[in-house]
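Predict structure. Chain length: 261.
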Amino acid sequence: MKQISVLFPLLVIFMVSACAPTYKRQPTQSREFFTPRNWQIPIEKEDQPGPASVTPTKIKPNIVMPDEEDEPKNPEEQMIGFASWYGPGFHGEKTANGEQYDQDALTAAHRFLPMNTWVQVTNLENNKTVIVRINDRGPYKKNRIIDLTRRAAESLEFKEQGTARVSLKVIRYPKDYDPTEGMTPYKQMIVQIGVFSTMQRADAFKIKLNQKFTKIPIFVETRKDLFYVLAGPYDEKNAADRVSNVLKRGGIDNFVRSYKK
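Prediction complete.
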């Protein structure tokens, strides 16, 4: 009788486990980079956010949330891919927008999102979230969509493993973002040939270049009282690099950069 009382609970456990449904692991989502449908919609606010205006409300550990008015108009929009981080080797160097890189700040590099765009990054492997500001360009390795500081990687808890699958959500575009142009100028590349303090000197240099390089589209762009002589724009960096090399072989110093930062 004692033997039956011992075996009966074991029999019940066996029957329950046998009837339990089995769950198949869901296939990994595509690692392709997605441009959100709401990229043309700027956040309506005059001033740009700064460290003092981002409210560190603790919703859960390692989450820094902005004010409620900063919430995106289409919160379901996101970009999915892999995040990496960069730190000690770049600390103190200049970023693409001229700032000094700080591995302990909440900033990031993105290939084309406008500088000073605020982005919410979610680690899809553990659901940790952090908000960063774009101030640099990169990463350029396949499947990587954002390069974070050491502090941001620590907040998302992937510093040791080096990369993590993440989603990005634009919280706020910069004030100078033009929704009528969209992301195109930020994706395009140009060759910067010269910068002048007067339009007359810039035009004269452009005319001289046009006479020597007849097949290269050269134009002058005005920005903050300076006049830039540029070639392009080009949809692919390789095309801009080829033009840059042609100009250099012709004795014209230049460099390739994003059309708009």
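Summary: Strands lie at 79-85, 107-109, 118-123, 129-136, 144-148, 164-172, 189-196, 218-223, 226-234, 255-258.
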